[in-house]
Amino acid sequence: MLEYLIKRLLLAMFTLLAILLVSYVLLRLAPGDPTRSELFSAEGQGGAVDAAKGGLMRNTALREKLHLDRPVLVGFVLWLKPVLLEGDFGESVTVDPGRPVTEVIRERLPVTLTLNCWAVALTYLLAIPIGVYTAMREGGWCDQLTAAGLFILYSLPVMWVGLLLQSLLCEGGPLPWFPLKGLTVPGADRLSIWAYALATARCYVLPVFCLAYGGLAALSRYARGSMLEVIHSDFIRTARAKGVPEHRVIWHHAFRNALITLITLFGGLLPSLVAGSVIVEYIFNLPGMGSLSLLALSSRDYPLQMALFCFAGGLTLAGILLADLLYLAADPRIKLAGK
What we know:
Layout: H1 2-29, H2 48-65, H3 72-86, H4 101-136, H5 141-155, H6 158-169, H7 193-231, H8 234-241, H9 246-283, H10 289-299, H11 302-330
């Protein structure tokens, strides 16, 4: 196991390095320049000519700071060196000028983690029972009705659902049960701890639903399909013939073997939820990683974009590694390479 983990971690490091290299090259080759907006930023402070000269000097200094005056590969090495040696991703250029990128991300990360942890938990807690229940009633009216409902749910665009929920269930709508945007709780200093926690939780209800419903619909169908493949196997018929209780046949024998597909999907669920949170956080005005990614992309903040690429790539690789380790817990017959 230790040998396998070392090999996978080394492979993950090289893979992440390749992801960062490709991301940096694409950023440098893309049209646009994050320093261009600084050229005439001082206009009106001392004449147009002096302002242009001052803007040009700031432009040149910023290009040197971002290594944009160097060849692409040289610039990537110069950016990567402090990241590897000191964990320093640099300072934000346009989103929060002069502030370390790690501080900007650390400030936004808890919101996205809370949002996605609840979405993942809700997805699996609902999808697995729905998938197992419909598989046990294959072809029945409940199975057909659930399938139709899940297909409709999966086809709904996230932005349309979010805006619809805002117009119906948020302040200003016919059923003002939830706040319209943001995480600000009015009168928070006068509320007790439990009242404040409840008010904050209300801010997450609709965003979590928007993040989870698509994965719930897809995962339920995958869980049903996996259970149907296993439930008709010979060892399941043998277990039933021996008089094993039905609940033990389903959850101990059948479901444990059907978990392989669900674990495989889990490896790609985490990065997909983070990617989906860009739209959700924008709709509900949540100060998380999704909205930060959108700001960094629109303002061409190179240091912040590279840090976000590193975070997304690391999260993807961590999800794949975690899925591999979960295979062992689900099926001890699986042997990891190098074990």
